[in-house]
């Protein structure tokens, strides 16, 4: 199962096995990690699942959609590595990926 590392707002790292087909948001919520609130439950309408994806893993996930890009305008601490973690579907190629939950989510 792909391992995803989450760096949460208190600075600690958590390595989680996330099944292929689940989202990076699912992996966080199912393991009760702090930071990713996921208010809308993954339907790309709340932006409380915002993360920064480490550059070398950005291409491991699907392309950003216009809907996701529009919603990110409402998030804080947005950068060019910003994604909504509910839209990051885990594949075998995501093994070892690292995402950082911005402080503003904490
Ligand atoms: S969980 Fe709401 S946009 Fe991702």
TrEMBL record:
CDD domains: fer2. Transmembrane segments: none annotated. Its cofactor is [2Fe-2S] cluster. Residues 2-105 form the 2Fe-2S ferredoxin-type domain. Gene3D superfamilies: 3.10.20.30. One of its GO terms (cellular component) is cytosol. One of its GO terms (biological process) is P450-containing electron transport chain. Keywords: 2Fe-2S, Iron, Iron-sulfur, Metal-binding. The keyword Cell membrane does not apply. The keyword Iron applies. Pfam families: Fer2 (PF00111). One of its GO terms (molecular function) is 2 iron, 2 sulfur cluster binding. Belongs to the adrenodoxin/putidaredoxin family. This is Ferredoxin, 2Fe-2S.
